[in-house]
Amino acid sequence: MNQRSIFVGIHLNNQYTQLAVMGPMDDDPVLLPEETGGEIPTDMELSDGGHLTDFVKQILHKEPIEIKGVEAAPVQVLTHFLRKVLYLVKQRHPYESIRQVVVVTPHQNVEFIDLIYKGLENLGIARDYALVADYKQSLIHYIMSQKKEYWVNEVGCFEYEGDHLTYRKMKMKGLVKPYRIEMEERDYSENESIFKDANTMVEEKAKIFESMVQGAIHDSIITTLYMTGKRCEEEFITKALQNVSRGRYVFQGNNLYVLGACYRARQIHSKDPLQDYIYLDENMITCRISMMVYTEGKVREIELVPIGVPWHQVDKQLDLIPDGDTEFVLMVEDLNKESKSTRIISMEPVEGKVMRQTRIGVRIRFATPRECIVTLRDKGFGDIYPSSYRAWEETIQL
Q: Exposed e or buried b for every residue in 316-339, given b needs 16+ CB within 10 A?
């Protein structure tokens, strides 16, 4: 059995967090704790019996977090909370290790995402075993992990959480592989005041909601309609769906995103059923970046940056040993332009060190989805060939 055999999905929000786990013998995710349907309050119990709440909101708004009069670092707070969540995984699977964690959150602030990664790293889960995703990505992986008959045409999803009512529609585009997945999003929150009005009858709310749903899907071939979020469990929505469900599949539930995150965690390390499909939005990288290296007795291509990952989450690092090389060559495959090209970074050679006498540290990051930052550093080779501290950096326009 693989030592890293547990796949974990976490839905992190300000008021509550959800947890789903897939073990080596599970076909589908299991929600933990089972008695609460996978729901965990996003708070921490303090030693004086009090509770720390709203810390996600405080981190996002850059407000100080005080515990017993002492300001706590945001990364420490997130680390302690993630430890509390992942302890439930250890209780269920005491002898296996986590192979992949996917955290889905509605808060796509770059600094907040980085704090999540650092919190997981503090718990021994490196970035190679972690991924932070948004609701749209998680929704797609949930939908496409279901029976194909559920997503053969277009799929709609209403999310009703707090004061926000959002509709998302997934559809396929293209006739050749990889097929494009598109996600449209519309905000219907202006109707929310009607639905929370205690003076409006349930039947009237149901009619208004049904009319809103019919208006959203009238020009679409919707195979399946999902209703998610805590407020989608209200009585008037259940009544409205009695008519909407005719001729299509309709599902209600409040664990769609965490289940999608868990499916995604497994897909990263298995034969991905979505390999013929690709989802891109304005934050996704549309170019595959690779290079040729000599490894394991032969020359082979290694992928450095795949297509379809958020630009702000790329931080690829590796070491290379040059064999007379004075140029660093990258291969770039642009999905949108359907073109391939090479990008060359000239490394002014460190005298006497290009013949397997040094290590070149490579780091690849992005400033925007179309700007790739490549940093090269001479790291030396032990005490015999110390580093020259030379560095090369170039921004590649994709």
A: eeeebebeeeeebebbbeebeeee
Nearest C-alpha neighbor of 236 from the set 274, 203, 187: 203
Look at residue 272 and tell me whether its pLDDT is greater than 70. Answer: no
Distance between CA atoms of residues 370 and 296, nearest Å: 33
Residue 295 has pLDDT above 50, yes or no: yes
Contact 229, 256 (CB under 8 A): no
Contacts of 74 (CB under 8 A, 6+ apart): 55, 58, 59, 65, 115
Question: Taking the complete model, does pTM exceed 0.85, yes or no?
Answer: yes
CB-based burial label for 265 (10 Å; 0-12, 13-18, 19+): buried
Alpha helix segments (H runs only) across 68-158 = 74-92, 110-122, 135-143
d(CA 69, CA 78) in angstroms, rounded, equals 18
Task: Give the model confidence (pLDDT) of 300-344 as tens digits.
Answer: 999 999 988 889 889 999 998 888 778 889 999 998 887 899 999
> Which DSSP letter does residue 187 get?
E
Rounded-to-integer distance, Cα 80 and Cα 87, Å: 11
Residue 262 gets which letter from DSSP? H
- Name the 3-class secondary structure at 214: helix
Of the chain, the end-to-end C-alpha distance in Å amounts to 41
CB-based contacts of 112: which residues, under 8 Å, 6+ apart?
59, 60, 105
Strand partners, 7: 22, 100
* Cα angle 84-88-93, degrees, rounded to a multiple of 5: 140
Nearest to 311 by CA among 263, 373, 261: 373
State the Cα torsion 257-259-260-263 to the nearest 10°: 160
